[in-house]
Sequence to fold (123 residues):
Amino acid sequence: MSFYKLVPSSEAAMMSYMKEQIQAEEPFIITGWRPHSMFSKYDLKFLEDTEGHFNYDNVYVLSYEGIEEKYPEAYDILSQWSIEVDELEEMMQQYEDEDKPFEESAEEWIEENRDKVDEWINN
Fold:
């Protein structure tokens, strides 16, 4: 039976260790999170959490009280907006690897999802 030791470190140290292990074709376990570019770069797998220690969570768009009355169109768009995690991770990877601005990735995403965006805008 193999045992693993949790070693607290920085994100940069985790990524460096992971890259070394992948290049050496050695097994490893990390405590990763999504969205993160590592899932776009590498073929990572989630371990089964039989003890229920790690829970999935959601990401929410937050605003301020009163936006619904002051900016109803913006409120409507923000209330409907959604994007797949893997799409965010791909954008993150392009930013890191190619220095591609997020604004450019967002523009491309909007064009590729024009029907969905138009539905949000035209409500």
